[in-house]
Amino acid sequence: MPSYKFNYFDLRGKGETCRLCFIAAGVPFEDHRIDRAAWPGEYKAETPFGQLPYLEIDGKKFAQSGAIASYISREYGLYGTSSLEALSIDGVVGLAADYFTNWAKSYFEADASKKTELQSKLKNTDLPSFLANLEKILTANGSGYFVGNQLTLADLSVYDVLENSYRDHPSVYKSYPNVLENRKAIAALPRIAEYLSKRKATEI
Amino acid sequence: MPTYRLHYFDARGRGEVARLMFNAAGQKFDDVRYTKDTWPDFKPKTPFGQLPVLEVDGKLFGQSGAIFNYLARELGFYGNGNLEALQVDVVIGLVNDLIPLMLKVFFQEQDETKKKELLEKLLTEDAKKFFNYFEKVLKENGSSGYFVGKGLTMADIVVYDIVDTLITNKATIVDPFPVLKANRQKVESNPGIAAYLKSRK
Question: What is the ipTM of this complex?
């Protein structure tokens, strides 16, 4: 097995899905966390494109959180059992990425009144639309997982991207029972449960 | 081979990369294009109320990224092995970081002054930053002239398509980047793509 070193800030952000992939697959990796206050410092020049995260595979550096998560998932059995399953998985991952974009806009908006507007849009439109699509997929698939009969990158991506909104707007989830069931099931998987029990809470 | 139908608007947008891959591979597909009149009837039939949708033997799949990855796998544009696939995905990720900057300028910003400012920044600072990244990847891949490995992959096609839009706004934008320019010529040298580009309006 190659040696893996994952470099990201000490928060969830764009890195947590990658960490969850390693953990779910039981693959050892160095979880190198960089203090936000120390960035950029000497760290930025070490990155392939001036950003975090990046993964070192036997010392060779690869950037882009989506690319990294897909690589680990392909390598360690989190990408389903066929090309069509992978297509469905990527569909869910794409929906999660679209929701993340909406969340990020609402979180990082500098103008106070625009921010209030975006936060309201997130809670009342973006989140319910996303959850409705997820509920539809889970209902149609029937196994409790998004694709096939086992854990895939789809379940991990959704679990991670909903972390903030589940904390901030739990009432919205009541109309989406399959999404809640899936979330509980993923959190209860042994390796993930162990990680979550020790994970320190971060704002994002 | 399954029967493929690509459903998208009559535009390049988020569908063109699929069309380019089909043509590059010489793979037959139905190029279904919706207008603002025909779209409302199809919308409720789509997986997520959006386009593009790829129909594979009658089954519908949404999300452009998912569709592109699937076609890259099926048509041989994902490199060889998982590490090359990772390299392809890195390039796709870089382009996905550039796209929101373009969406902001072309679709989202309503204030005319701010829009002009952002367009100027896109065509100078932002383009330079990303073109430098693209050239870095091309150079680190060695002398093949492609982004990954020794042949055409989805990485070349995705970059080709996004840079097309920037060239439309500033014809000389790639000129200071000879390595990227040479890569564009590699893409255009694929016979399927060459024929398609000639016929494309």
Answer: 0.97
